[in-house]
Amino acid sequence: MLMYYKGTTNLNASRMIAFVGTRKATDYGRERCEEIISDLKVKDVVVVSGLAYGIDSCAHRKSVECGIDTIGVMGHGLDRIYPFQHQKLAMSMLENGGLLTEFPSGTNPDRENFPKRNRIVAGMCDAVIVIESGIKGGAMITATLANSYNRDAFAVPGRTNDEYSKGCNMLIKSNRAALAESAKDISYIMGWDDRTTKVKSQTSLFLELTGEEKKLLSLLNSKTAVGMDQLIAKSAMTPSKVASTLLNLEFEGLVKSLPGKLYKIIA
Prior knowledge:
- By secondary structure, the chain is α/β, with parallel strands linked by helices.
- The chain contains eleven helices and eleven strands.
- The longest helix has 14 residues.
- The protein is elongated, with a radius of gyration of 19 Å.
- The two termini are 31 Å apart.
- About 4% of the residues have low confidence.
C-alpha cells in the first residue's frame, strides 16, 4: 500500500493511540477526551484520529495544546483539508504531528473513503479509545477493526439512556473493549505504567510457577496477543484449566487479558 504523509512525527513511534467517537460530541465526551489526553502526556504517546468534527478534532486540539504529537488520517488527498473549518488545526498539526492518507492528491472526500480510512487508524495504533458513539458509525467500525487486528480497544462508559453512549456501553458489555474511566486504566492495561511493570517483573523472578503456568507463558509473548482457543489447542489443556491458569497469571501480574478473549505477557 502506498501512503502519503506530511509532517514531523515518526510513524513508527513506540506508543500510538487512536481516539475516535461521534461527530456530535457532548460536553461530557469532550471533557473525558481532554482529560485522558492530558494525563497520557507523561506516557510519551502519539495521538491519532480522523480530523473530523466532534471527538476527532477535540483529540487533535488537546494534543496540540499539550504538546503531544498528533496525526490526522484523512479520507482524501493531502492537497485539501476536510472539513474546511479544520484548516488552522491541520496546519498546527504539521508542526506537532502530521497528516496521513492513502489517497493521492485530487481525491475528493467522498463518503465511501472514510470507512477505508478507519482501517488505517486501527492498524497503525497500539490501542483505540472510543469516546461517545452510537450503536452504528465510524467509531464502532474502527473498534471492530482494532479487535480483528489484535489491537487493544477501550471505551469510555456513559449513561445508559444517552444515545451516544450506547455504542461504548455495548462494546464494554460484549467484552469487545475494556472499560476506560481514566488514563490510568489505559496505562495499566497497556503496560505503560513503567514503575508498576518494573516491580512486577522483578517480583516474577521469585515466583514458583506450576507446570501449567510455565506452559502457557511459553506460548505467550509481549508483542502479539494470543487467543484463548489457540492456547487451548497448543497447550492440550482443558478450557477450564487454561482459564483458571490464566487467571492465576493475571493475579501474579505476569499476563494481561484483552477484549476478545486475547492474552499477552506483560513486558
